[in-house]
Amino acid sequence: MADNGKIQLLTWMIGNQMYGADVKFCLEVQKDISVVEVPHSKKYISGIVNLRGDVVTVLDLQVLLAQKETATRERSVIIRFNSRERQVAIKADAIRDVLEIPFSKLEDAGTRLSSTETKYLPYIAYTDSTFLLILNIEELFVVK
Amino acid sequence: MGLDMQQLIGEFSNEANEFLEKAETEIIELEKNPDPEKINAVFRYIHTVKGNSGMFEFQNLSRLSHALESLLGKFREGSLTINKEYIDLMLEAVDRLKLMIRELDKESTFDISSMTEQLKSAAAAEQKKTVTETVIDELAVTEEDIIRAFTEDFLKESAKEAEKNHQFASVAVLDLMEQRFQSVGELAEFLSQFSVNIKKRLLLTDNIPEIEISSEILPFGFLIVSDLDTKEFFKKYDLRPKFILTLYSPIQLIQSKETNPKQEKQTMETSDSYLRVRSRLLDDLINLVGETIITRNQLFQRSAFLNDPEGGNILSRMSQLITQLHEKIMHTRLQELNSINQRIQRVVRDTAKNLGKQVEFQFEGGEVELDKTMIDTILDSIIHMVRNSIDHGIETPDERIRKGKNPIGKIRLSASLQIGNIQLVIDDDGQGLNHEMIRKTAESKGLVPSGTVLTQEEIEELVFLPGFSTAKAVTETSGRGVGMDAVRTSFKKLGGNVHLKTVFGKGTSITAVIPQTVTVISCLLITVDQTRYAIFQKNVSELIQFDPELFTVVNGVRMYRFRDSMLPLVHLGKLLYPDRDFKDEAEYVVIVKSENYYFGILFDQMIGTEEIVVKPLGEFFSELKLFAGATIMGDGEAVLILDIAGISEFEGIESKNKESESTKTSSELKKETGYLLFEIMEHRFATSLEYVTNIEKLSNFDFEDLSGIKVIQYKEDIIPVVSLSDVYNLKGESNQDSSFLIIVSTENKEIAVMINEIVDIVYDIKIVEDDRYHGESVLGHSIINDKSTVIIDIQDLISKISKVQFSWIGKHLDIQQKQTAEEEKTAQASAG
After folding, report:
1. Residues A17, B620, B614, B333: is their CA dihedral positive or negative?
2. Looking at chain A, which terminus has fewer C-beta neighbours within 10 angstroms, N or C?
3. Cα distance from B473 to chain A (closest Cα, Å)?
4. CB distance A38–B291 less than 8 Å?
5. What would the pLDDT profile of B710-758 be if each residue is shown by its tens digit?
């Protein structure tokens, strides 16, 4: 988290929804990488990818958040997160800018989202044109 | 306190720990063999710990190690002889030292007064020798120390130089306080009058940590080159050196040559020394070399497009080097199991002593190497099992004598390398476990419903259930609620398992198997529905082209005939992608072996074998047993590695509690064939697959009548057909559409057995002998899939029937065979 009361967020699109995560957790963004499906694994797991020699698990946020529309394209963007030496990646349709948002503009997502969703998306932030959902990376590692 | 200091203290504690462990080993050895060399070794270890502790101002550590050292000094000078009590005391002191090292920040709060008092009074027991001598002994400089301080190369060089100039070269150790000189400069000046040159001087305390810094004497080492014999010279001018090491002497050439080989040997040993390396660094190296291999493979794929033979040569040379490099690096993490020997010896000794038992511990296969992290993981389990053996297994000496056993109990830990696995066996010759008692205990704890019929193996398995403990009372030694379930969990975490075998009154044997982790493994690469998968080469037994002739599928049970036995066949496509459509058949079959069973895996295409780097799948897949990991291919894509044991478990091929017998490995296929479960007139039967050579659809054959006996043509032969419903006089509805023939081979002849329905192939069934199910060749009955099933010995049955019914067919066939053989002979003869 950046100083002066602001948070820097890497943002991305899945379908028509914009998501964001604290940049300090974001390790890299890769395009055109094929995700290898892991048969019989959990539904919210898209598969595994090779990211610079590491085999990283790719999660499907849409499934995890129990969203109906999973209009994710075949070849999508992979965002790798890193927290306390653990790694995980998610699939996104497209990458957007890094936004700097004052903490004061973060709102509790509970009013807008279901409890399943707020577990992973505790905050909402409004920008000029739209709103974005902020992902709690730590929560991705305790997915059951 | 800066970071450097922190680091230094870290190094100090590591080193101190290592020395204390070594000291402990030697002390335990001393009990059996009070070798003066060993006493010296212990003395030095403790001395070093003392010196370093003093340097870091750890008062308690330094005081306690000093007290221990003094006691050791007594043994060294021979005024005390080592006995069991002293060993106990010394071990206790070493434990205390270790404890303090472990909690260095609380070092000053430890109360060591009683411990030091004990040591002191032990040391004072026979204090007869003069005190003055021991003071000099404080400075125990050895040749080795000097070589270390000055470095071998420098000493050799100086010796060579002296030889060239026909001069004397030696190293003298002096402490200034004992001489008449106030400073090194003064001494040097004095020496230079006699053209004695000090080539190099070192304050030895800086270079040899053994030498105590707190002592009042400051030992200096001087490398002296002169025209005079240093020894003579020193004597003449009343300089009192502590030690003189002659490097070169032009006069005593003959003598020095004699001693040379010994010295050479010693220096050789010191040069093959060890370096302490942070294990994190080793991990990094392993990862890097893994990356290098992946990159190499990528490069190889590219190089196929380059048309440059010379470049190709360089590339393959580099590739070889990388392979070698990888091997070496992998070895850096390996550690011999011997490294845990001392810990276990200690446990055995202490436990036996506490319980008043006598135990001899044997350790075999200490040279087996394992990854260091693995050793750390299993050590606690091994200790737990050894403790268990002593506590529950080995009887007291009196009891053993009463039973006619040797009063000294035996516990043996042996390690050996199996195919890709390491097997650890812990045997004892104690009282063993009473199976009935185990069962009752498990029942009373509600772990199994009472009255359950269990085989011996199943009872032995109960020991591993959480919450099981046979100890009548929780003892300090074992039975702290950790139990064998924790032991099993720790082995399972490493991908292994553990089993127990016990004979009441005779002893218990625990076998643990763990995979030897080598992260680069040769793998077979295959494809299923365009997706690549890898199978560890060590699992692969044979690779064959799929032959539909040998393939049978009945009610979803796929079987493949391989060398006269029917093997279960796993359709990889259907297994991995149940939603997709697959044909029953495929291109290839790979015969794989898991822990006990051989089975076939059906797949589409073969890519070849490749050396791959195994990467863990990570925590998200911890419950998924089908894959052993993943690897990254030359093209950068991730590929999953199939876990053969996991697949067999998933498909129900593997039973839970078999493997102890599987250790008698051989290249041959084992006759672990399982049982064919089938139905006749809605009665369930099962028979061992051992003699079943094939299963055919009845509709494929036409029955012929040969003098009232049904026969079919089968593979250019005429074979009789037996209807089991006739044999057992079964009545009921028969569904003619789904009838099968089981081809059974007996006494080199084949016979077809007609049945209605194939149900399944099952393993490890419990056969209960029961009078209600008597009949020809009935072995007993069993409950399989909740249905009562009659188990028959089909081979026995067939041979009985054929003796009566088909005897003439047999004769007929024999005659036919003889005739054809004779025809062939005559044909050959006429051709010749």
Report:
1. positive
2. C
3. 39
4. no
5. 888 887 778 888 887 777 777 766 555 557 888 887 766 788 888 888 8
